[in-house]
Each structure stands twice: as C-alpha cells, then as structure tokens.
# Entry
Amino acid sequence: MVNTEICDLLGIKYPILQGGMAWVSDANLAAAVSEAGGLGIIAAGNAPADLVEKEIIKAKELTDKPFGVNIMLLSPFVDDVVDTVVKHGVHVITTGAGSPGKYMDKFKNIGAKVIPVVASVALAKRMESAGVDALIAEGMESGGHIGELTTMALVPQVVDKVRIPVIAAGGVADGRGFVAALALGAKGVQMGTRFVASKECTISKLYKEAVVKAKDRDTIVTGRVTGHPVRILKNKLAREFLKLENSGATMEELEKFGDGKLRLAAREGDIINGSVMAGQISGLIKDIKPVKEIIEDIVKEAEAVLKSINSLFEGEI
Ligand code: TUI
# Structure
C-alpha cells in the first residue's frame, strides 16, 4: 500500500496518473487505469469537442471510478473542449502547453480538481496563486511537448516553492522512478510512455513495439527553433524535421510539415513518416503489459526498493 494526499484529493487508490497523450489516451486506456486504482486521463489534444465528448461518455460506461481529461491549451478547439468537460462534470482536469488561468472559474464551479502541467518554478507559483489543486512538474525526459529542466532538477525546486501537492512526470516507468519521485518531495507520479506500452492502449501495435525496441539514446528533440520543443523517437520524420528546421524554414512551414504526423504514427502505424512521441525512459520499457500489472508491479517494486534503501542505513549508531 502507498497512500499520499493525492489519493485523497482525487479519490484513487494509488498516486499514479496516466498522462493525457494526444491520439493515444482514449476512453479505453483511461478507464483501464482508473479501474486499476490509478487516475486515467483522456487526452483532448487537438480533437474537436464532439470527439472528446464521445470519449467522456464511453469512459463513464467503462468505469465508475474517477477519471480526468487533459486539455491541450494550444488546441484550436480549446474553448469548446472546456465547455464539454464542464458539461459532463469531469472529476479532474489536467492542462498542458500553457496556463489554464482564464478557465479556472468554470472548472471550480463544477468542483473539478485542476492540475496543470508546469515545466518551471515561475509557472508553478503563478498556478498556485490562480487556485489550482495540485501541480504536475514535468521534466524534459518526457515525450511530446517539453520544457527545459530535467525531472530531477525541476521537482524539488517546485516542491520547495509551493504548498499544494506536486506530482512528478518525465522519466518514470518503474518502482525505482516512483520512489525517486517521492524522495524528491512529489506526492505522486504521472507516466505516459509506460502506459503506451500497455495492452489496453488502442494505438497501432507498431508504435508500441517501437517504444519497446527503443534504447536509451533513441529519442531526439525537434522544434527547439520554433520554441515548441517536442521529444520523439528518432526516425525518418525526425531527420527530415530537423533538416527543415536547420535550413531556416519559417514557423508556418514547420507547422505545416508537422501537421497530422502524430495521428499518422499512433493511429495508422506509420512509424517511419509519423511522429512517434515517447520519453527517454523508453529504453527501460521491455514489454507490453496489462495496465493493472503495470501499476501493481510498480507498487510492489517500490516497496522492495524502499526496503533495500532502508537496509543501507541499518546498523548506524
Ligand atoms: O503538453 C504536454 N505535452 C504534449 S502536448 C502535445 S500535442 C502537440 N503536438 C505538437 C506540438 C505541440 C504540441 C504533445 N505533447 N506536456 C505538458 C507540458 N506543458 N509540458 C510543458 C508544458 C508547458 C510549457 C510552457 C506548460 C506551460 C508553458 O508555458 C505557459 C506560460 O504561460 O508560461
């Protein structure tokens, strides 16, 4: 057993959240994670509100446990997605790629817990002042859109500067990472890539296998030039994107080139020309397991890790 204030805040058994990954985190994955005692999260990504609504309805059919929706604040449909989430009284709202400040009143009116993803201490403090319930401090080890700091450096600095609970994300995929996050002062973890390689994840098998096959240095960051750094697995698309970037292509050209590429990889299984977003921890992931096993193995492993660390301190005067 492991119990932190995140469990009580969100009404879940284990303080383990599943990252809201665009084109990946659907009702099926989210419901499986919530059923297994974690917090499943549906990703709105760049999807229109009616699609997000369908997933929310489906998740409610699949589980009666709490689940969340991640709102990607750069989405062209963000206002409609916010209204949909509010209409359905979603329990937990996480946000990414910006500040949810202007939507706070709407979320608070329905009693939802609001947990933005932050990549800096400054934004963490701003979000706390805006009245959010907790924070996800996400390091640059993560897949997808990232900040500049590593989880190791970011989490304790955020923890020291806010009073609300902090959840660590980026580079966590097993019991060791979970314990490390707790040691840094986090009250829970969010994992994305580990849940990509799960049975219940509905994306192309080829995408999952690419994660399992990946080694420690197989991810790369594109988009640094445009100010939208995105971590993906190295492939033809990554090489072409970087070439275009270094040739001085405009923001519009790069955006046009990147458009639809995540869907291409995740849903159509084109892992050569598509954008295979995945974290640095891919190299640690060696199998595709049921979600329940992933969560229970992490908790079991964490207990063993703690015992072995404890033994290092035994025998002291
Ligand atoms: O949002 C994510 N990860 C994502 S979103 C995404 S969809 C996408 N696809 C292509 C290009 C761009 C996005 C794929 N992966 N993680 C949460 C996250 N948020 N990481 C970093 C941030 C962040 C960055 C800057 C949050 C706020 C911020 O600045 C806001 C401000 O006001 O300072």
User: Anything to note?
Assistant: The first strand starts at residue 16 and ends at 18. The first helix runs from residue 5 to 10. The two ends are 30 Å apart (CA to CA).
